[in-house]
Amino acid sequence: MTIEFQVEGMSCQHCVAAVTNAIREHDDTAQVQVDLATGRVAIESTQPAGTLKSAIDEAGYTVTGVISGPDR
């Protein structure tokens, strides 16, 4: 499944690493693409969207919406 979130609070490569690592704690094979300019995080994962959203939230960032994916 691929899902794309709109995320607030990301501004640097440390943020990219933090979000990527948080997601990979739940799915170590997840493919994660972070676009700092738009605040979008695209994830290819077998985990439910809610789990991925929680991982981003727990890393200290705010998911403001689902752009595309099963919850859209």
Q: Characteristics of this structure?
A:
Heavy-metal-associated_CS, globular, Alpha-Beta Plaits, HMA_dom_sf, HMA_dom, 72 residues, 33% strand, 4-stranded antiparallel beta sheet, alpha+beta, single chain
Question: What this model shows, in words?
Answer:
This protein has about 70 residues and is α+β, with helices and mostly antiparallel strands. The protein has one domain: Alpha-Beta Plaits, CATH 3.30.70. It is built from 2 helices and 4 strands, in the order βαββαβ. The protein has helices spanning about 15-25, 50-60, and strands spanning about 1-10, 30-35, 40-45, 60-70. The protein has a 4-stranded antiparallel β-sheet, covered by helices on one side. A hairpin with a 4-residue loop joins β2 (about 30-35) and β3. The chain is globular, with a radius of gyration of 10 Å. The model has no long low-confidence stretch (mean pLDDT about 95).
